[in-house]
Amino acid sequence: MEFQAKIMGDLKEAMKAGAADKVGVLRMLNAAIKNKAIEKGKDAVLSEEEALQVVAKEAKKRRESILAFEQGGRPDLAEGEKKELAILEAYLPAQMSREEVAAAVDKILAGMPDKSNQGLVMKAVMAEMKGKADGKMVSEIVKEKLA
Predict the structure, then answer these.
(1) Percent of the chain topping pLDDT 70
(2) Largest CA distance in the chain
(3) Which overall architecture, per CATH, does domain 2-89 show?
(4) In 8, 96, 117, 145, which residue has its Cα 20 to 30 A from 126's Cα atom?
(5) CA 118 to CA 14: how far, in whole Å?
(6) pLDDT tens, 39-92?
(7) In the chain, what are the helix, strand and coil shares in percent, each to the nearest 5?
(8) Measured between alpha carbons, how far is 25 from 139 in angstroms, rounded to an integer?
(9) Mean pLDDT taken over the chain
């Protein structure tokens, strides 16, 4: 709940400062978190980890939109998405570098008896990372290590 209170506090500050872009993103984020809680059940409250997953999901949507807009020749729209992504990333844990992820994958692989099933390896690695690394990058590293 502390995480959600921080978002609400930041929303109030952004409203007072007149930062329309930030207000819009934080309102969207707050609505997404509330929708997830409603989805979970009546009077449900999301844990901090679940709320972070919502933020990560919204950030992923922005990354995909940026890529689509850039491929479609719409840099103006991509720029708006980049601004939103920057605001969302402030609420995510610091992302691990490729080298840190590779070291973590090596450590996890060393402790696994069955390394042939990429799905099981990915499940173990992603459970360890918990939002600290991009899933696409982790998948690439796991494929390289298992090849």
Answers:
(1) 98
(2) 56
(3) Orthogonal Bundle (1.10)
(4) 8
(5) 44
(6) 988 778 888 888 888 998 999 899 999 999 999 999 999 999 999 999 999 998
(7) 75, 0, 25
(8) 29
(9) 87
pLDDT over 90 percentage in the chain: 44
Which residue is associated with the tokens 């600290």?
132
**DSSP single-letter state for residue 132:** S
List the domain boundaries for the chain: 2-89, 98-146
Listed in sequence order, the residues at least 6 apart from 105 whose beta carbon sits closer than 8 Å to its beta carbon are: 125, 138, 141, 142, 145
Any idea of the CA torsion for 50, 8, 88, 58, to the nearest 10 degrees? 50
Q: Residue 6 CA to chain centroid, in angstroms?
A: 17
pLDDT at 112 over 80: no
Question: Cβ atoms within 10 A of the Cβ of 88, count?
Answer: 22
Most confident stretch, 16-20, 105-109, 122-126 = 16-20
Could you tell me which CATH number the domain at 98-146 has?
A: 1.10.10
Question: Considering the entire predicted model, what is its pTM?
Answer: 0.76
Contact 26, 10 (CB under 8 A): yes
